[in-house]
Amino acid sequence: MSQTSPQASQQTSTWEVDPVHSSAEFKVKHMMIANVRGHFSKISGVLTLDESDVTKSKVETSIEAASIDTRDEQRDTHLRSADFLDVENHPWLTFVSTRVNKLGIGELSVEGDLTIRGVTRNVTFSVEGPTPPTKDPWGNVRIAVSATTRINRKNFGLTWNTTLETGGILVGDEVTITLDTEFVKS
Q1: Beta carbons of 55 and 101 less than 8 angstroms apart
Q2: Burial class for 162, CB neighbours closer than 10 Å (0-12, 13-18, 19+)
Q3: Which of 38, 124, 158, 171 is geometrically suited to a Cys-Cys bond with 70, CB 3.0 to 4.6 A?
């Protein structure tokens, strides 16, 4: 009988998102002239890191949709409504990786299923990291990644818009999503 499980368990480690030191941000064109930026304050997730082959790693992340903040309460209320995120019926935005590709030193592409408003689409994040493990002053071991992708919001059922008096639209279709995530080893 071969015994591969002890070796496999030594090569894989589990890391949990540190929500205090992580952010989920987005930007989208407003009135076709400027970017509006916002963030979600409640993020959680788990990274299963294969330390011998990062391409075998997996990540799952959840973001509470109601935690959206664009520094304008009236806009945030509208974004939480059925016109946009519909947080009553779809309280979570989620990402589950399906494939990790190594591009270079400290560079990955991570493909996976992004779910917004109950609609799931395959997206690819460009990832910097993970950083080398670092021990914090309290003895916890930490790593970090920065991940970015662009989506068309209409592909996720986020179709609300209005036409401007001068022509054009109020809200752009392309949304840039950036996750700066710090993980703590379990």
Answers
A1: yes
A2: exposed
A3: 38
Bond prior to 130 in cis (omega within 30° of 0): yes
- CA distances to 8, 101, 103, 122, 161 from 110, rounded to whole Å, are 22, 6, 10, 10, 31
CB 79: neighbour CB atoms within 10 A? 22
Domain ranges of the chain: 11-185
pTM metric for this prediction: 0.86
The residue written with tokens 């059925």 in the block is: 82
11-185 classified as CATH 1.10.3720.10: no
Which pLDDT tens digit goes with each residue over 84-109?
889 999 999 999 999 999 998 889 99
Rounded Cα–Cα distance for residues 139 and 111 (Å): 32
